[in-house]
Specification:
The chain is mostly beta strands. It has one domain: Autotransporter beta-domain (Lipocalin). 7% of the residues lie in helices and 57% in strands. It is built from two helices and 17 strands. The strands form two sheets. A twelve-stranded antiparallel beta barrel has the order 1-2-3-5-6-7-8-11-12-15-16-17. It has a four-stranded antiparallel β-sheet with strand order 9-10-13-14, with no helix packed on it. It starts with 16 loop residues before the first helix and ends with a strand.
């Protein structure tokens, strides 16, 4: 599940052509940072509008359901052929907007629960298994570095987005369900750190966003079979084209590319280099003043190794506060 913030449309002032070109060059350069290093990238999350300015003191809770079907390999170092799975996920999210030295910021926490069935071939033998339990929870700190000041509700009414540059750090905590003697696990048994840099520019009712991030993994000292698993850092790149609609609704087309993340066990490198491309879409609709629904979906295609699956997600969000 993804945490997304959505608000109504703002006014727009026309920019001079040279300035508009500069913004486009910045967006393109940031996107290429994540796309032109094919030996360094892995899985990505497609999350539009994460840079949206929010009045300080706003709170969000979200509950969602996710259906996933396909080659869902939770650990890149495992050697399983013809893997197929159907996984159902339930997620609970809390987020709050904060003031970070005069800049707009957010903190959020995600608690996932999953249950599903896997089948595949290992050592020329067909095997089946099922899992249900907690995944690794994650926490995130976000701050918009440029173009998004911290505002109260009254100040927010006159705010007009142009270009926003933001940074966030997300940490995955290794407390999800994990069994060292089992191939398939819902937890990773290691910390994951994911710093991300993004830029968003508004063109009237259209928004263009680009993000790049790097995944950094600690060592799993209790890998399957009693080994020690290490994984190289990963870089991802993604872009979103967003269109604001009437009555606070919006839609987005999302695309991302990931490559890298080769794993090794006890110093021996596995054939686990990952190269995947994802495309998807998001539709958000408000229900009254404080409630909204979001429908999200994407498909993944792998060029080398990695996951290859389809995902659909429906989320309900409630917001309050901000005085």
């Amino acid at each position: 599940m993804k945490l997304e913030f959505s608000f109504g449309n703002f006014g727009y002032k026309k920019q001079h052509v040279p300035a508009m070109r500069i913004y486009l060059y910045l967006l393109l350069a940031l996107l290429l940072t994540g796309l032109l290093f094919p030996d360094k990238i892995r899985a990505q999350e497609l999350e539009p509008r994460s840079l949206t300015n929010v009045p300080v003191g706003m709170n969000f809770v979200m509950a969602g359901y996710t259906w996933t079907q396909g080659n869902i390999l939770l650990d890149p170092a495992l050697s399983i052929e013809d893997l197929n799975a159907t996984v159902h996920g339930i997620v609970a999210v809390y987020a709050r907007s904060i003031n970070v030295f005069g800049k707009s910021g957010k903190i959020d926490a995600v608690l996932p629960y999953a249950f599903g069935n896997w089948s595949g071939v290992q050592n020329q033998e067909q095997k089946y298994t099922s899992r249900h339990g907690l995944g690794d929870p994650r926490i995130r700190f976000s701050v918009n570095l440029y173009g998004s000041p911290a505002l109260n509700m009254e100040e927010y009414k006159s705010y007009r987005q142009r270009t926003i540059v933001g940074f966030n750090m997300q940490v995955y905590l290794p407390v999800g369900q994990y069994f060292p003697d089992r191939l398939i696990n819902l937890g990773s048994n290691r910390f994951t750190f994911k710093p991300q840099l993004g830029i968003s520019h508004r063109f009237d009712k259209w928004y263009l966003e680009a993000y790049t991030n790097i995944w950094l993994f600690t060592i799993n000292k209790e890998f399957y079979g009693g080994g020690e698993m290490k994984q190289k850092p990963v870089i991802t790149g993604k872009v979103h084209v967003i269109r604001s609609l009437s009555k606070g609704m919006w839609i987005a087309a999302n695309a991302g590319y990931a490559d890298g993340g080769t794993a090794s066990v006890n110093g021996v490198e596995r054939e686990s280099h990952i190269s995947t491309f994802r495309v998807g879409g998001t539709f958000a609709i408000p229900i009254g003043l404080h409630h909204s629904l979001k429908l999200f979906g994407f498909t993944t295609s792998r060029q080398d190794k990695g996951s290859d699956y389809e995902l659909l997600s429906l989320a309900y969000q409630f917001r309050w506060g901000g005085k």
